[in-house]
Amino acid sequence: MRWQDIDQQPCSLARSLAIIGDNWTLLVLRDCFLGVRRFDDFQQRLGVTRHVLSDRLRKLTDGGVLEKVAYQERPLRHEYRLTTMGRDLYPVIAHLAQWGDKYLADEAGPPLVRVHRQCGEPLEAKLQCGHCGENVEPKDIRLEENPHWAGQLLPTKAG
Amino acid sequence: MRWQDIDQQPCSLARSLAIIGDNWTLLVLRDCFLGVRRFDDFQQRLGVTRHVLSDRLRKLTDGGVLEKVAYQERPLRHEYRLTTMGRDLYPVIAHLAQWGDKYLADEAGPPLVRVHRQCGEPLEAKLQCGHCGENVEPKDIRLEENPHWAGQLLPTKAG
DNA sequence: ACTATCAGTTCCTAATTGGAACTTACTTCT
DNA sequence: AGAAGTAAGTTCCAATTAGGAACTGATAGT
Lengths: 159, 159
Hints:
Largest interface: A-B, 96 and 96 residues
Number of domains of chain A: 2
CATH topology of the largest domain in chain A: Arc Repressor Mutant, subunit A
CATH superfamily of the largest domain in chain A: Winged helix-like DNA-binding domain superfamily/Winged helix DNA-binding domain
Order of helices and strands of chain A: HHHHEEHHEEE
Strand content of chain A: 15-25%
Largest sheet of chain A: 2 strands, antiparallel
CATH class of the largest domain in chain A: Mainly Alpha
Number of strands of chain A: 5
Helix content of chain A: 25-40%
Structural class of chain A: alpha+beta
Radius of gyration of chain A: 19 Å
Strand order of the largest sheet of chain A: 1-2
Oligomer: homodimer
Distance between the termini of chain A: 20 Å
């Protein structure tokens, strides 16, 4: 199977990755959350080649994560802004960054600290169940298959 | 800059993506959380070519996300298991899957429902501040730069 | 007229991927 | 004993993608 066809699977994770799972794309989104909006700014900060950046921005725009907004006429220039759909990816970015802070930082410590404005403390991101409010770990989750794809998604014990 | 060099940046997100940001790698981890452990099972479920799978499993193992455990001798066979470091990626997977459920599902609805055992309700993942317990959105976060990399990480207003 | 800005596109070479077959070390079936 | 099966890779080749640098086009500033 080719990587470009993974969006044809029913799995929501596979479909998400079809939009944001390419090399460089999550780094583009990191910069979006830092306020970067323009092509050349992304290019200089990331060091990615211009045609790869062009391709990734197009995929993000087509996927609904970013929108292209004109910021001037004559000459016409566009910038890229996060949509609501894009801003909803913040928990993914926050947890990935926190994971890197925990396991991959060097002696100087994490390069950025995310301070929660409301309480003034460094964000300690937790996965919380919106229904009962408890923190959630992998073992706390039981998977239920949508009958529409019964038996096609979960591994069998046999392998 | 080449993709293989992004782990040399101080950014924790870049370093995380150096381990898990490759195409296919997050789908390998999805299957790990579903209980898949063996090479051929990953290969059949993902449809990825065997040498790409081999490369990704090696990167995950070298990165400390998975560990190779012998499950039989004669002939010697190994399986891949999540480490504690790997299980700590669960919030990333859960939020990505939920995002796909919300924006990318088709008429039949999300293919899998993650039920929180403790409360019996479908997990509604939230990003929570571990300090004050409030839900967190992008606008609630203020970034503080580690002085060691002062001025090198955040974009300037000038561009 | 000359230079700069910005958002790309084009060109070429080098690296990576997709697909299929092959390898190694056993075990089980006939 | 010989043939087929299992598991975890490795090897080979053609096709796609990425990296690097230069180029384009519309316009503004000097």
